[in-house]
Amino acid sequence: MLRAFIAFVKLAWIILYQNKKNTSRLFAELNNVLKKHGFTLTATQKKRIAFYTAQSVITNHWFSQLRGYKPSKLEIKHALYLGAFTPIADDLMDGQNITFQELATQQDGATADAVLFDYLYAKLAPIMAENALFKSYFEKAHLAQNQSLKQLQKAPLSLEQLKEISYNKGGYYTLLYRAVLLNPLLPHEEEAIYHLGAIMQLLNDLFDLHKDYHNHVQTLVTNTRNIKYIREQEVALRNQFLLHFKQLSYAEKNKKRALAAIMAIVTRGNVALDDYEKIQGENPHIDVAAYPRKTLIVDMELPKNVWRNLVYTNKSIR
Predict the structure, then answer these.
(1) Phi and psi of 300, rounded to 5°?
(2) Which of 4, 84, 105, 245 has the highest CB neighbour number within 10 Å of its CB?
(3) Burial per residue of 189-213, b for 16 or more beta-carbon CB atoms within 10 angstroms, e otherwise
(4) What is the value of pTM for the model shown?
(5) pLDDT tens for residues 228-261?
(6) pLDDT score, position 79
(7) pLDDT exceeds 80 at position 107
(8) Gap between the Cα atoms of 280 and 300, Å rounded
(9) Which residues contact 315 (CB under 8 A, 6 or more apart)?
């Protein structure tokens, strides 16, 4: 339990203190840019950016623990810019139903999001010029994002199509965030991180069940609403992740620390799966429309859920 508890404390520190401080500085930087165009960051933009910079600092922490030393100031800055860029590009693509390539060639500074896209894309360009791995995963991640536009269409997608779209998006974005760190990938690392990213995307979709269902977004979760099926997919992905993770040639003590930090996030999904399975019961799926929003929201800040998360983390790293 001690190793799991330490992992929780470290994650809380980097998210609630380090990332909050760095993101506040980023907000000031972005507001200075926006003011020149007559804009300021909205509360919604701040919330979206803060969520993704938190994701970037979490992945930075995972893979820094794995290699055995902290990220440099440059790596932290690059992760921060990537974290801010991701939701801006995502929202612009979804809002206009256009590919990343179409978005990147637009000459449109008429909105705050467009100004932010241009500014942050320019910050990422030098990284792509100097880091071939980052450039490769940047391209693959945005090709996956292009494919995810199909999830907004009315034409039904098969489960295999949804798996491919979801897993590629999660897998390649997580590899992109890993590529911010300058140490090279070791054998089996790409496969391990791809499957970890696929898990994270599946669990994001799980937590978004109510929102995505009512917004008519097609995911494995909304199209099946069968939590037993979703659990089977999560278990299969986790087994693949662990299969490759265990073969990594990093120091064993680093692997143990990294795995504890990873599972502290991944096992949040166990809490949600348990809650949703209780709601589904013996029914073939959850009738989402029959439940109020509060019933289908799993609040991971509740003390009882934090405890359940900690217990699951401890079990997963024994």
Answers:
(1) -80, 0
(2) 84
(3) bbbbbbbbbbbbbbbbbbbbbbebb
(4) 0.96
(5) 999 999 999 999 999 999 999 999 999 999 999 9
(6) 97
(7) no
(8) 20
(9) none
What does the block give as tokens for 299?
A: 């609040």
Q: Residue 194 has which token pair?
A: 């791809």
CATH for the 2-316 domain, from 3.10.310.10, 2.30.30.100, 3.40.640.10, 1.10.600.10: 1.10.600.10
In the chain, the amino acid numbered 255 is: K
